[in-house]
Amino acid sequence: MTLTGRAALLALAGGLVMLAFPNVTAMLAVNAVVLAAVVIDVIAAASPRGLELSRSGDVKIHLGQPGMVTLTIVNNGHRTLRGMVRDAWRPSAGATPARNAVKIPAGRRVAVRTTLTPTRRGDAAAGLVTVRSLGPFGLAGRQRSLSAPWTVRVLPAFLSRKHLPEKLARLRELDGQHKSLIRGQGSEFDSLRAYVLGDDVRSIDWRSSARHADVLVRTWRPERDRKIVIVLDTGRTSAGRVGDVPRLDVSMDAALLLAALAVHAGDRVDLIAVDRRIRSRVVGAGRNEVLAAFTSTMALLEPDLSESDIGLMTATVLAAARQRCLVVLLTDLNPTAIEQGLLPHVQLLSSKHKVLLAAVSDPKVAELAAGRGDSAAVYHAAAAARAQAGRAQVSALLRRYGLEIVDAPPGRLAPALADAYLSLKAAGRL
Q1: DSSP 283-331
Q2: pLDDT tens digits, 124-156
Q3: Of 8, 44, 213, 229, which cross-links 135 as Cys (Cβ 3.0–4.6 Å)?
Q4: CA distance 251 to 170
């Protein structure tokens, strides 16, 4: 049984009557009226036991984007059910509205729609559905919590998708409209065309020219079907926040843009997430399935507050990629973590693969380094300059081992990484 605010108001009105007529008869009369009204409501209210619940709607929603889940309630009882329905979700699911007024005639069904705007990645499971059936007076009724299982997977936001058209336009220039005259490593022959003033003489195909009236030059295009292994470091440093966003989320966004671009370029993309153990792996997904597989896997990733096992990371990459490929390592350029973790293994990794390291820089550090307002600002500037120097030093050290470095703030990491990939592809260095 459940009571509503109307029952409280009726009891308050009865109390006022008893104040006006302070005797036993008035008290008994008021209590009898209130009790009779409540009992009538409880008896007349339709039983929630006869309800049948089911759900439909979105099973995947991108972080911060709205989705819809529909709860269908079938009244298998013999009375019309009037009351309230509360569809419970965890707070981070952003479910609205929280409650819905319903009227379900016997043998009929109604649909209750809930809009979800999630603020956290992962699987969001629906809670119990609480149905409150009220009587004709609206004073009391029956209440029951029923199960209607449903799970929505909240995917990464992929905010960098807005940069994809621009990067695809550049890719088309590399792959079609503007063929290279100079063959780079990893390039393949495309076609012959007539020599024009300004072409590099090294591109002239003398044998073909001898068989034709014109001087012909060879053109090359970036080789397709190359393999890219994206490695997400989910260790301690990925838990740090730059602004309001965890480093891991920024790395995921950059990985998604790179994967989308590489798929359009005809390359194969794998994903490995690792810290002290392998958290997830997407290997061999079809080109039409890569983004869906990546986002579904990334949705469940959370930073582990321990140091990453770089030895395990290196062994996993070497096992997954037997032939030379591009390894994109999304980690942090923390000097201590790099010197103690990556450096002992970087020579082995870079000797077998082309390695591109991408890291999220903190724009607040650059802002502090420029501060000179007072003595505190000077100390902050000195500390920030020291951090920048350490980051630059470890970057230079990694470049000496042949690594490409992309170090950019959160809003620029994804397009900067895509540009680095396109530059390597244009130069035939994949």
Answers
A1: -S--TTTHHHHHHHHHTT----SS---HHHHHHHHHHH--S--EEEEE-
A2: 999 999 999 888 888 888 899 999 999 999 999
A3: 44
A4: 22
Contact 303, 238 (CB under 8 A): yes
Q: How far apart are CA 358 and CA 413, in angstroms?
A: 8
Question: What fold, for 227-426?
Answer: Rossmann fold (3.40.50)
Local confidence band at 221 (pLDDT 50, 70, 90 cut-offs): low
Q: What are phi and psi of 404, to 5 degrees?
A: -90, 135
Is-contact 82 133, C-beta < 8 A? Answer: yes
- Asked if 120 and 154 touch (Cβ cutoff 8 Å), the reply is yes
Per-residue pLDDT band at 178 (split at 50, 70, 90): very low
What are the structure tokens assigned to 14, written together?
Answer: 């009865």
Euclidean distance between the first and the last CA atom of the chain, given in angstroms as a whole number: 70
Would you report the helix, strand and coil content of the chain in percent, each value rounded to 5?
40, 30, 30
How many angstroms separate the CA atoms of 35 and 15, rounded?
Answer: 14
E strands, 298-430, where?
Answer: 326-330, 354-360, 404-408
Question: pTM for this structure?
Answer: 0.80
Q: Using CB atoms within 10 A of its CB, is residue 425 exposed (0-12), middle (13-18) or buried (19+)?
A: buried
Picking from 21-25, 297-301, 381-385, 393-397, which range would have the lowest pLDDT averaged per residue?
A: 21-25
Q: Which of the four pLDDT bands, split at 50, 70 and 90, describes residue 224?
A: low
Half-sphere exposure of 121 (CA within 13 A, CB side): 19
Q: Domain 1-155 adopts which CATH fold?
A: Immunoglobulin-like (2.60.40)
Confidence of residue 258 (pLDDT cuts 50, 70, 90): very high
Specify the residue for token string 């009726």.
10
Number of Cβ within a 10 Å radius of residue 24: 8
Residue spans per domain, the chain: 1-155, 187-222, 227-426
Answer yes or no: is pLDDT of 183 > 60: no
Q: Which two tokens stand for residue 56?
A: 């439909």
Contact 73, 52 (CB under 8 A): yes
One-letter identity of residue 56: S
